[in-house]
Amino acid sequence: MTDFWKVIGSSSVQDESEIKSALARISGKLSAMTPDALTRFAEQLRESLYRIDRRNLAEVPVTLANGSELPQTSDHFLYARCACILAGERAYSDVLSSGVGFERFAAPFAQEAEGLLYLASEHYERKTASRMNVEGYFPIESSSNVQGWVD
Fold first, then answer.
1. Predicted pLDDT at 1
2. Nearest to 31 by CA among 99, 119, 134, 132
3. Distance between CA atoms of 43 and 66, rounded to whole angstroms?
4. Looking at CB atoms within 10 Å, which of 7, 15, 82, 86 has the fewest?
5. Residues facing 54 on adjacent strands
6. CA distances from 66 to 69, 71, 106, 116 (A)
7. Helix/strand/coil (H, E, C) string of the chain?
8. What are phi and psi of 150, to 5 degrees?
């Protein structure tokens, strides 16, 4: 996974502009990759999303600007996991091992991290004029990781 994390880099993921900047930086790196490398990146992204698909993280509430809290939807949780990955390998590893620090990725602005899901496939399609197929790999939908949702 070293190449994957080199492409991801790290970001403080403190606001929407930092997420957009991180996505642009990653997109630039992906644009230079071969179709095979793009497919491997997409597979590693799916695996990383799958590994942090855990009930304790999905139950972290979304805190709105006015202080009220809402439960995450399944889409919100997927995009929060994307934001966690954008923060880099260290932040991801911390969340994976302890669950600590995931609250900041459940923030409303972190939904912008959804773009991470599409970057590799967009570059792949531009290079090959065909769709990337990684559907047979790790599922990324919330509650797909049965081990992460065991009571």
1. 46
2. 119
3. 38
4. 15
5. none
6. 9, 15, 15, 28
7. CHHHHHHHCCCCCCCHHHHHHHHHHHHHHHHCCCHHHHHHHHHHHHHHHHHCCCHHHHCCCEECCCCCEECCCHHHHHHHHHHHHHCCHHHHHHHHHHCCCHHHHHCHHHHHHHHHHHHHHHHHHHHHCCCCCCCCCCCCCCCCCHHHHCC
8. -70, 135
What pLDDT, in 10s, does the model give residues 84-137? 999 999 999 999 999 899 999 999 999 999 999 999 999 999 999 999 988 778
The residue written with tokens 């009220």 in the block is: 68
pLDDT tens-digit readout, 26-52? 999 999 999 999 999 999 999 999 999
Distance, in Å, from the CA atom of 58 to the CA atom of 135, rounded to the nearest integer, reads 23
pLDDT tens figures, 10-30: 999 999 999 999 999 999 999
